[in-house]
Design brief:
3 helices; four-stranded antiparallel beta sheet; 8 strands; Chitinase A, domain 3
Length: 172
């Protein structure tokens, strides 16, 4: 079979684009803008595109119209990302409240806020008498650089659009 290069170029024009109601799978890397230090990476982040809350608004705008293989870099201020660090979410707890267990720094514990809502805290510090818990997201207050590569785009199904998020078990 003889195939001409022009045929390949025509086929390329019909590749999927990231638009509303598409499920997008990304490779990503997050670095702290001020230091360049790597904070997080992954090769399989999937979300429903189009304002469903699975990605930051600025990230969705940057990825809109991209195709498989495209790479996108986005910088987010704390207000555009995980918010400012809230000192009210840093709590000091007596060690005895952990019932003889000494939590490890960096581990996660679930607690209850004064308003009764459940909150996940990171153990920030442990001393002989107290434990410092931080309810802020680890990236709160940081200027972040996100580096994405689009690795898959597929049509969403009605159940995903109704739920407002992509189902991990469906692959294109």
């Amino acid at each position: 079979m003889n195939m001409q290069v022009t045929n390949l170029l025509i086929l390329d024009e019909y590749r999927e684009f990231v638009v509303r109601d598409k499920v997008v799978r990304l490779c990503f890397r997050v670095t702290e803008a001020s230091t360049g230090s790597l904070l997080q990476y992954g090769d399989d982040l999937t979300y429903l595109h189009g304002g469903y809350g699975g990605a930051f608004h600025k990230v969705e705008r940057a990825i809109e119209g991209c195709r498989i293989g495209d790479r996108v870099n986005v910088s987010l201020t704390p207000e555009e990302g995980y918010g400012n660090h809230d000192p009210a979410l840093v709590l000091q707890m007596p060690l005895e409240r952990f019932h003889g267990e000494t939590p490890e720094p960096g581990s996660l514990v679930e607690g209850e806020m004064p308003d009764g809502q459940s909150q996940v805290f990171t153990v920030a510090e442990v001393s002989p008498r107290q434990v410092t818990l931080d309810g802020n997201h680890p990236f709160a207050g940081k200027l972040l650089d996100f580096h994405f590569e689009i690795i898959e785009i597929r049509d969403s199904i009605e159940a995903e659009r109704t739920a407002g998020f992509a189902f991990d078990c469906i692959h294109g």
